[in-house]
Amino acid sequence: MHDPVAFRSMHSSRFGAEPAVFVGPGRVNIIGEHTDYAEGFVMPAAINFACLAGITPRADGKIVIYSENYGEEKSFDAAALPAQGSRNWSDYPMGVVSILAGEGHKIPGFSLSLWGDVPLGSGLSSSASVEVATALAVLSLLNASFPGPVLARLCQRAENEFVGANCGIMDQFISINAREDHALLLDCRTLEYKLAPIPDHVALVIANTMVKHSVAGGDYKTRRAESEAACAIIASHRPGVTFLRDATLEDLDKWGSEMAPKSLLRARHVISENLRTVACCDALLRGDLAEVGRLMAEAHTSYSKDFEGSCVEADAMVALAQDLSGLIGARLTGGGFGGCTVNLVERSQAAAFADALGARYTAQFGIVPDIHICHASGGAHPIV
Ligand code: GLA
Questions:
Q1: Contact 204, 47 (CB under 8 A)
Q2: CA-based diameter of the chain, in Å?
Q3: Which fold is adopted by the domain 202-374?
Q4: What's the rounded Cα separation, in Å, for the pair 88 and 115?
Q5: What DSSP character marks residue 256?
Q6: Where are the domains positioned within the chain?
Q7: DSSP state letter for 306
Q8: CA dist., res. 238 & res. 315, Å (int)
Q9: Would you say 332 and 341 are in contact if contact means Cβ atoms under 8 Å apart?
């Protein structure tokens, strides 16, 4: 996995100075999908896949960013920052720089190296890991800092306003505020959160369908628009409702007939998912893993059937896990339409579980899935 020593020397030999290095983790969402932009609840955990950002100042007023993953260098003028992204990997770091500049920070020249092992387009928040690691790196140069929730909002804005992906706040928030061995229940309205320990004997097994998705892509936007259209209809009857967070299943009984059929389904997913997410955190806190598993199964069905956010491969990955020993709960995680499933599995059985699941999936699709046995890691931090 990461080798900060090799990363540091890679930066030093390329840019001629020893960097300050920061890490921003990716995440897995245990439950609470497409609820964040409805000001609802999510319960993610950070994972031991991350982005490293190394930074050193420059005297020539340039911002030079090197991505080790892409083997490519991009150069910008710190005094004339681009106002928008250019559909390139450099949009993620430059989005953060641009938002910080918009907040009144004078951006100096710097060299930034990036390297990450969060699989791209797999629903594990590679984008947020880059934004968050970059934010910590640039802030260190500015001698500035922000409280975690504020920094998460700035990184989300980088993605919304610069990259052009309409994501919610979950990914950036957990990457910054995660706690090792814990899941975090976030209220996406108030940004208040509660930590729930993941017991030692439980592993997070992440199974990649190898089907790629993109938050900037059309499906995410369509689903979001459909659920917001349902919200607007409820709001026309109950003005107190500003987001689906405020709506109830009774509202759907009353006014669902006024909604486009797809909108009604999307809203039913979001409203019921909020209830499940809060209930799942309670169950985890009281150690009721059977209930956690039941809620994850229900969440997957809702995501797949009502939200239509899954795909054949992800539905199969969940189905194939069901009768394997050690499984506590399985569901598709992240933005949807591919990516990974998250499986809570008894740690002592996790390796056998991963082997069996991989073999079954390969037999069905002829694709060898990457399956990782992860643990919940801490949030973004400097590496000293
Ligand atoms: C992506 C987005 C998040 C969230 C999830 C779906 O990961 O970046 O903000 O909306 O999809 O839960």
A1: yes
A2: 66
A3: Alpha-Beta Plaits (3.30.70)
A4: 15
A5: G
A6: 4-197+379-383, 202-374
A7: I
A8: 36
A9: yes
pTM equals 0.97
Those residues whose C-beta lies under 8 Å from the C-beta of residue 8, and which sit 6 or more positions away, are 18, 19, 21, 54
Distances (CA, A) of 196 to 184, 245, 255: 6, 22, 36
Distance of CA 28 to the CA centre of its chain: 7
Q: 170: Cβ below 6 Å to ligand 1?
A: yes
> Which amino acid does the sequence have at 146?
F
Q: Which two tokens stand for residue 112?
A: 């930034």
Q: Strands 371-374 and 20-31, how do they pair?
A: unpaired
Domain 4-197+379-383, CATH number (from 3.30.230.10, 3.40.50.720, 1.10.357.10, 1.10.3720.10): 3.30.230.10
pLDDT for residue 49 is more than 50? yes
Catalytic: 315? Answer: no
Q: How many angstroms separate the CA atoms of 190 and 36, rounded? A: 11
* Tokens standing for residue 233: 């209809």
Residue 24 pLDDT: 98
Q: Is 36 in the pocket of ligand 1 (CB under 6 A)?
A: yes
Contact indicator for 273, 33 with CB cutoff of 8 Å: yes
Distance 349 CA to ligand 1 centre (A): 30
Q: Which atom of ligand 1 is nearest to the CA of 123?
A: 7
Mean pLDDT, the chain, whole residue set:
97
For ligand 1, whether the C-beta of 339 sits within 6 Å is no
Whether 149 and 2 have beta carbons less than 8 Å apart is answered as no
Instruction: Tell me which of 28, 31, 36 to substitute to probe ligand 1's pocket, judged by most ligand atoms within 8 Å of the beta carbon.
Output: 36
Q: How confident is the model at residue 121 (pLDDT cuts 50, 70, 90)?
A: confident
Which distant-in-sequence residues (6+ apart) come within 8 Å of 346 by Cβ?
201, 202, 203, 325, 326, 328
Kindly state the average pLDDT of the residues 70-87.
97
